[in-house]
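Hello,

Our lab assistant flagged a job as stuck in the queue for most of the afternoon. It eventually completed. Since we weren't sure the result was trustworthy after the delay, we are filing this so someone can double-check. Below is the sequence as submitted and the structure that was eventually returned. Let us know if re-running is recommended.
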Amino acid sequence: MDHERIVLDIDTQRDFFLPSGNLYTDASDEAARNIYRIFEWVRTHGIPVISTVLRVRPPDRGPIGERPHCIDGTPGEKKLPRTVLPRRINLGLINSTDLPGDLFGRNQQVIFEQRDTDIFAHARAERLLTELRGSTFILCGAGVAQGVMQAAVGLRTRGFGVIVAGDAIVDFAHPRAEMARLRMQAKGAIFASTTDIIATPIPRKRGAFRAATTPRTRAC
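-- returned structure --
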């Protein structure tokens, strides 16, 4: 499967981005606005989207903050409504390697549900990601020190280009957030503003953000 650009939407759920959410912060508003801009861009240009949804079983509180978040069956677990596309498939929690055929021919958005934040721990998601040859991933969402970093580092390790929408992510003041950013940059991920990302023409061939598509040899 060949796609020049793919948006990887990490846990854009109500507990993180709405004022009623258990982990909402002052930074959540701006991040949500830019996430919505990215989703308008993907609607306009037909860009494929892979989304993760964190689903935490009680009595666990969740992996990102001290307060319970994204608990099964609660309003905070739901995705932001403007991050759900009409042509989509939810592959749920099933952790097997089988995938339906022609996923992005039939759907614009593929959703994976997870009990933790690492997308590469989900066998179906890992298989799909590794089959997307020649792609550059644009990352947005929740958990700079968790899911965002895990996705960025995992993709760069596998040779994919990574562009992180720096104003469309939240870190929840995590003590390792700055270290996570430095690690992503050391692996070759590029941080860009949403404005720059959505203003960049969609190329017919690989070329834009070329630095994001060449793996670095520096270990981290």
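-- support follow-up --
The delay was a queue issue, not a problem with the job. The result is valid. The chain has a mean pLDDT of 89. The chain is about 30% helix and 20% strand.
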